[in-house]
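hiii so um. not sure if this is the right channel but i have a protein structure encoded as tokens and i wanna go backwards to a sequence. like what aa goes where. can anyone help
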């Protein structure tokens, strides 16, 4: 079993990596590792993150014909 001291040491190492990082990707990876280590220390009690569903909108093109009467769904 991994001791809490080992987990804390790894958290500190990841925090130092995040502080020295030159790009956002490395910072985010280090912070994600810290979050995972926190969940290990807490015994998995952390609530899992539920991804949000993206909202999509559909663009409609209005049929433009001489004998059509506008944006009606009955235009053929």
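sure thing!! here u go:
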């Amino acid at each position: 079993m991994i001791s809490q001291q080992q987990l804390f040491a790894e958290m500190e190492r990841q925090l130092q990596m995040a502080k020295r990082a030159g790009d956002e990707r490395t910072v985010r990876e280090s912070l994600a590792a810290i979050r995972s280590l926190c969940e290990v220390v807490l015994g998995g009690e952390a609530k899992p993150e539920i991804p949000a569903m993206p909202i999509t909108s559909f663009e409609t093109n209005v049929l433009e014909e001489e004998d059509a009467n506008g944006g009606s769904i009955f235009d053929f």
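oh and Residues 24-41 form the longest helix (18 residues).
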